[in-house]
Design a protein that fits this description.
Elements (H helix, E strand, L loop, with lengths): L1 H16 L2 H9 L7 H12 L4 E4 L6 H11 L4 E5 L6 H5 E6 L4 E6 L6 E5 L6 H13 L1 E4 L2 E4 L5 E6 L12 H4 L4 E4 L5 H12 L12 H11 L6 H15 L13 E3 L3 H17 L7 H12 L4 E2 L1 H5 L4 H11 L4
Parallel strand pairs: 1-8, 1-9, 2-5, 5-8
Antiparallel strand pairs: 3-4, 6-7, 10-11
């Protein structure tokens, strides 16, 4: 019985502490129209201290979304446009010789911000990608002999363009695995696009005001860990992950020739964490199976390798996740 009382207590605490989510969403929606999933995923990444890989054609407000989020939180924002001639020093910073003091001084790069937009990450060579990914993983940067801890919160939103093939360097699987979520963004609905056109042609610029402090976000990041997750939900998450590795054990023999490798333990950690963040965003102090199902595609689609056979059948990792989720029993 004691546990039930605890859940009620946690639920009330989370409900009270997550009130700022509504304020934040309202503020972002002043500028961003109809991209509910993208905004939700940005908040999950922010609360889960993870990073996001966004894929979508140009012009879907990817840059605008993260810039707006940084303004609403009064955090610092920087944008790095990735190009084939970019160097690691252009991202992390470099040592500059100071003639007056006759010594080297550190010039920090654009990675030193709360919100970093890595625009078209697949346009830069591997050296630059790995410099960014190291900063994402370690939350620190080394310039010369010195190491610098990055500011908190620290969220990288990398975008990649699915239509360009020439002059791009696709991210290796091990690097893509560093992203908590991969979200594919689609075009807005017709009514939303009508609103977008009118807003853009009205000449009235919506001012975003800071509604949440960085301190509140850091507190919420700690609170997310307190969201209650039952053992049945944990088992459900593990069943989904293990079904990507050993489909035959879950009565999914037909998936065996389609999967080249399954999700790593990073997948199960991030699926559990994203589910907790999703519950928090929905102002709940406990995780339900619907939370897991809501985030499973974004957490796993870049963590499952598909074979040539799957490609020949026009199947994607999303199709594989759908089959797994439909087969595994919901607690």
């Amino acid at each position: 019985m004691e546990k039930k009382v605890d859940i009620k207590k946690i639920n009330e605490k989370i409900k009270k502490e997550s009130a700022f989510i509504d304020l934040l969403t309202f503020e972002i929606n002043k500028v961003i129209v109809g991209q509910k999933v993208m905004i939700e995923r940005l908040l999950i990444g922010l609360l889960g201290q993870g990073h996001i890989l966004l894929e979508g054609v140009p012009g879907l407000a990817k840059t605008l979304a993260i810039n707006t989020l940084s303004k609403a939180i009064s955090g610092s924002f920087s944008r790095i446009q990735f190009t084939p001639d970019l160097l690691p020093a252009d991202v992390v910073g470099t040592l500059i010789y100071n003639m007056k003091q006759t010594k080297f001084s550190v010039k920090k790069g654009p990675i030193f911000a709360n919100f970093v937009l890595a625009d078209e990450i697949n346009r830069a060579p591997a050296k630059v990608q790995s410099a960014l990914l190291e900063a994402m993983q370690e939350k620190q940067v080394t310039i010369g002999d010195e190491s610098f801890i990055l500011d908190k919160p620290f969220l990288v939103m990398a975008t990649q363009n699915p239509i360009d093939q020439e002059g791009t360097y696709s991210l290796p699987e091990a690097q893509v695995d560093r992203f908590m979520l991969k979200t594919v963004i689609d075009y807005p609905k017709m009514d939303d696009e009508k609103t977008i056109i009118r807003a853009n042609l009205s000449g009235v610029e919506q001012k975003i005001k800071p509604v949440v402090t960085v301190k509140q976000i850091l507190k919420a990041q700690k609170l997310v860990n307190e969201v209650y997750m039952d053992e049945k939900i944990e088992s459900y998450i593990l069943d989904i992950i293990f079904a990507t590795r050993f489909p035959a054990k879950y009565n999914l023999q037909d998936l065996e020739p389609l999967i080249s490798f399954g999700a790593s333990p990073r997948g199960s950690i991030n699926l559990a964490l994203a589910s907790k963040c999703y519950a928090f965003i929905n102002r709940r102090g406990y995780v339900i199976p619907e939370d897991v199902r809501a985030v499973v595609h974004d957490v796993l689609q870049h963590r499952i390798g598909i074979t040539y056979e799957a490609e020949a059948e026009n199947l994607t990792s999303i199709d594989i996740i759908n089959k797994i989720v439909n087969e595994i029993e919901v607690p």
